[in-house]
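Repro:
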Amino acid sequence: MSDLYVLGARQRQLFLKAGEEWNLYEAALILRLDTESGAVETCVEYKSPPEARASEHSSNIFKAGTLVGDTLYTCTSTEVLIFKLPDFEQIGYISLPLFNDLHHVTPSSDGNLLIVSTGLDMVLKVSLGGKVLACWSVLDEDPWLRFSRTVDYRKVESTKPHKSHPNYVFELDGDIWVTRFRQRDAVTVGGPAKRIHIDVQTPHDGLVRGDRIYFTTVDGQVVIANRQTLKVADIIDLKEINGHNSLLGWCRGILLMEDQRVWVGFSRVRKTSFTENVLWAKNIFRDGMDERPTHIALYDIPKKTCLQEFALEPYGMNIVFSIFEAKP
């Protein structure tokens, strides 16, 4: 089995009160895991420079990225970083005033970057040189209706509550798609309106493989849609596989392996943080439930079994956003 790269962050020590998400994480991390031997290596530990964050207490965290060949595209809340693997040489960097609570970056088919600026409810197309080529609201509104072209949103700690909270962008048959947390769907931007309903729960990742699109939902489900019909074809409830007595965690990050095996990431849900965005956890949590730590797990989708689990908190990672296969 191949090594894995896992992207996320280490949480700050909290002494008096629970921190807000935007100041909870002290260092962005990329770990390399040998899932056979259990060996773990910290490949990158990163903190955003002062000019790219709102305050010295702003979170440092790697959100969802994309691996193409030996090039890794990832983002913090206010930056896009590009690394050449396996040495993690930084070969690209972009930070723009429109960047607030970024959640995903991926190279586009035309050689640019597609970036989800979650804090502005937007998808951006940006050149590798940092020029903004397009801005699309993920809602049916002008992108500047609620936001200003003159504000540096890197210096704004949070724009919550978000009307949509988009998470993940992908291309499909010439269209640009984005998952929307609050609307429980994936929709197109910048072109003809299309929609995939993900009614079971709020989605995060949208990974296209062959004739299927794999979505994660935050409560631990993998929703599989048909790329031709844009209809949900199957739903795999990972809670049923693990047993309903476990609060698996915030489900985010998926890697498809051979034979329909998938690695999925889970970030610990702090019971003190049951707010509007984690009502799914509040609704299913009950006394005596096993609160799982931050971990990744390998599932056999056809057999509906969990094959392996790997705890991440012993290695300093408290939140997971992306999982990638590490080539030799």
